[in-house]
Specification:
- The structure is a single chain.
- By secondary structure, this protein is mainly α.
- About 80% of the residues lie in helices and about 0% in strands.
- Helix 6 runs antiparallel to helix 10 (about 215-225).
- The radius of gyration is 20 Å and the shape is elongated.
- It starts with a helix and ends with a helix.
Length: about 290
């Protein structure tokens, strides 16, 4: 067990010491936040129906829409950033050094996965707590304990799912250059496909059906549903029905068919565990070579 702990600590320290890797892990989130606050964010509370609305409530609403997407992108980009240790170790042949020690192979692979979960969960949770403080101090609206705990639990689940997907992707890569290319485009692609940059309704039914097959789409919807539940409570129910489409908080099912979100969540979790198993197989082959 001590060897696993040592490997986890080693991976975390390696990531944190690499300031460039940390910066680029947050780059997608920084770009997304800049787009929201400079351009996209204002459209969420503009129009005749918002003219009489209090400015603080507008901020409460728009921040919920923004952070519902940002927290999901953050879990993806951070977990991928931490996984960069793995591809660096492969390219620099450091893994061969581990193999001459008594450490079992599954512990080597598991250490990358656990270190990714720990770093991503803690930093995403910090971002969520900063959001709570920002909304509370700026608007006077404070999220309830139930909402704070629900979002925190979702962040843990999303961290697990994102880390499973990222270790699967990285296990198929061989060079740092390939990893850099994937890291550069993944956050942007996911942002569009999952309706984070703009509502899926705008992108058309074909894109919406394809997006329903992407786990991160449903993860974004569930997060927005919880984080916007309290701002919605301050509005006219008729207005809320209109906003649910525009803000992307309506369930989209799978390929146009209604599916209970519980079954979708179970499916995503099982699929993530499957990816983890495939990743272990891929990494074992690389360790043999």
């Amino acid at each position: 067990m001590y060897d696993l702990q040592g490997l986890i600590l080693r991976n975390i320290k390696t990531f944190i010491r690499d300031k460039t890797a940390v910066f680029f892990s947050f780059l997608s989130v920084i770009i997304l936040l800049a787009l929201y606050f400079l351009f996209i964010g204002k459209q969420y509370t503009s129009g005749a129906e918002f003219d009489a609305m209090d400015g603080n409530l507008k901020t409460f609403l728009s921040t919920g829409v923004i952070m519902g997407g940002v927290l999901v992108v953050n879990s993806i980009s951070l977990s991928l950033g931490v996984m960069g240790n793995m591809i660096t170790d492969i390219e620099q042949r450091k893994l061969e050094g581990f193999l001459v020690t008594p450490i079992k192979r599954y512990k080597i692979v598991l250490s990358y996965f656990i270190s990714s979960i720990l770093v991503t969960f803690v930093l995403t949770l910090v971002m969520w707590f900063l959001t709570i403080l920002y909304v509370g101090v700026i608007t006077g609206y404070w999220y309830s304990i139930g909402t704070i705990l629900s979002i925190s639990l979702l962040v843990f689940l999303y961290t697990f799912v994102s880390s499973s997907f990222m270790i699967f992707i990285v296990s198929m890569l061989k060079t740092v250059n390939a990893f850099s290319t994937v890291a550069g485009v993944l956050g942007t692609v996911v942002g569009f496909i999952c309706g984070i940059y703009m509502p899926l309704e705008v992108l058309g039914k074909g894109v919406a059906k394809f997006s329903s097959l992407v786990p991160f789409t449903h993860m974004t919807i569930w997060l927005k549903q919880i984080i916007l539940s309290e701002p919605y409570g301050e509005l006219n129910p008729l207005l809320v029905k209109e906003l649910e489409v525009f803000y992307g908080t309506l369930e989209i099912g799978v390929l146009g068919y209604e599916v209970n979100p519980i079954w979708i969540a179970i499916g995503i979790t099982v699929f993530s565990i499957g990816l983890l198993a495939i990743s272990y197989r891929n990494m074992s082959k690389k360790l043999v070579k």
